[in-house]
Amino acid sequence: MTRNQSSASDQPERSSNEALDAKNERELGARPSPPRASRSLLRDINVGLLIELVRQAGSISRAELARQSQLSAPTVSAIVEHLLERGIVIETTTAPSSGGRPPVLLSVDPKAGYVVGIKLRGDGLTTVVCDIDAEIIASQDYYVPLVGDPVAAIAAIEHETRRVLRAAAVPPSKVLGVGIGLSGIIETSSGVCKFSHLLQWRDVELAEPLRRRMGLPVWVENDVNTLAIAEKWAGDASTAQDFLTLSVGRGIGLGIVINRSLYRGARGAGGEFGHMIVEPGGPKCECGRFGCLEAMVGEGALRRRVGERKGHEVSRDELLTLVELGDSAALEVIDSAGRKLGLAVANVITLLNPELLIICGEGTSLGSVFIDPIVSAVREQTFADLGRDLEIKVQDWGDEAWAVGAATLVLRESFNLPGADDRSQAIWHRSGSSSSATTSEASFVNG
Ligand SMILES: [Zn+2]
């Protein structure tokens, strides 16, 4: 993994940028044969299903693929043949023979395609390049003020995408697209940020201008939702039907996956869990209202409350140090916040009855003093003991996790996982149905 820390001063002036752009036009924008047809083929529902089954199995025979997908053997063979030609699937070791000819096994080549993932913050962006297994190939940070300045964001995204692809040294023809995650309400079909209180943006077009400038597909999604997509693609939730990702940190967010699809709500604002008011007239929240959960138990609230007890402002690093030292004021504040958050989560568990809860985000670095009371409340405060059977996982948090989440957005869209921004999600059936198989077979042959 490459990690480059950059500062704003690293960005070239406009004139040298233009020269860079001209060079990158040749690298990115003016590719001789954009793999449009291949991308649309990958979005075929049965192709997506087979790729997912191969990924989950690690290696699998054609016969077993046909059995699990409930597609006909000729359909499986035809799709596999095409995926072999494209280099997405490779033939690997043979299974132990029980007499007769041993079957050839198939695996997905993680280096068959690459995706760019970008997490936007108020003070800049983190950009990664990942392979198909969501492993990081290159990563970099760039600091530039983005609050209230979407024009700067678009320029920075383009610049950083070109820079990270050069650092990763992946062939442009293998780049499947760019995924962008940010806090706010996102209209995913158009790639428009309808509203972000963190960035102070309203109705900002992101996907379309970036597609035009970079010549690559671009998808935009709420950052908390990208964490749920990442868990589904390459994390702890790969086989889960109904699960929640709870992100704790500066913000408190919830990614909701129901029946293997991300729940986004009518206006894309589903899951704004941190802005449920839990104490009317309580502390002012960044959203402008009072007493939101986030304003009670988010990182800012913890630092403020510990600071009040200590008589001075407490930074994030100091908060972590106080926890390490076992400072009683810090431990009390964090324990109390964990209980309050846990109760709110328990209520959501009672509402949705998921099978799995994944706790992630920067706040997990506070460790057991914060996590244990959350888990206890979930175990003890749910209706009919729903929380007792619930599987709870705490994610090891890395700085790049948000950007990797944004990268998996491209993987989901490229390989047509459930919830991809496409009508086909409506007919996705894990067991396969005859009607969807017929439709897909036709489009595969015609495509
Ligand atoms: Zn709020």
Find the count of extended strands (DSSP E, 2+ residues).
17
Q: What is the assembly state of the chains in this entry? A: single chain
DSSP summary: helix tally: 16
- How do the strands of the widest beta sheet line up side by side? 1-7-6-5-8-12
CATH third-level topology of the largest domain: Nucleotidyltransferase, domain 5
- Assign the CATH architecture of the largest domain: 2-Layer Sandwich
**Percentage beta strand:** 15-25%
CATH class of the largest domain: Alpha Beta
Shape: globular
Q: Cα distance, first to last residue?
A: 37 Å
Structural domain tally: 3
Radius of gyration: 23 Å
Descriptive overview:
The structure is a single chain. This protein is α/β, with parallel strands linked by helices and 447 residues long. It has 16 helices and 17 strands. Strands 1-7-6-5-8-12 form a six-stranded mixed beta sheet, sandwiched between helices. Helix 8 (223-234) packs across helix 15 (401-415), helix 10 runs antiparallel to helix 12 and helix 12 packs parallel to helix 13 (368-380). The protein starts with a strand and ends with a helix. The model is unreliable at 1-38 and 421-447 (pLDDT under 50).
